[in-house]
C-alpha cells in the first residue's frame, strides 16, 4: 500500500468510525473498543478488515483515536481538507 501525501486531492472520502473489536468475513463481531479510527480507501485501506488485519501503513493512518474529535482532526490532517468532507462510518 502506498500512502498518498496529505493535501492530495486523490484521497476522495476519508472515513471515521468507531473501532470494531474485530471483523470476521466483513461483519463486525463483539461490538466496539470505544476508540475511533480513520479509514482511507485511497491509500489502500479496506473498511472490511479489522485493525489487526490491516497493513502497517493502514494502521498508522487508522489510529486509534480516543475521541470522535481526535479522529476527525486526524482525518482532516491526513487528507488535507476540512472535516465537512469526512464521512462518519457507522455513526448514523
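Sequence proposed for the structure above (92 residues):
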Amino acid at each position: 500500500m502506498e500512502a498518498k501525501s496529505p493535501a492530495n486531492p486523490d484521497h476522495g472520502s476519508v472515513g471515521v468510525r468507531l473501532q470494531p473489536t474485530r471483523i470476521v468475513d466483513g461483519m463486525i463481531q463483539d461490538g466496539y473498543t470505544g476508540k475511533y479510527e480513520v479509514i482511507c480507501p485511497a491509500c489502500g485501506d479496506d473498511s472490511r478488515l479489522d485493525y489487526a488485519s490491516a497493513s502497517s501503513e493502514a494502521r498508522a493512518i487508522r489510529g486509534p483515536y480516543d475521541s470522535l474529535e481526535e479522529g476527525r482532526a486526524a482525518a482532516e490532517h491526513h487528507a488535507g481538507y476540512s472535516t465537512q468532507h469526512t464521512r462518519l462510518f457507522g455513526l448514523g
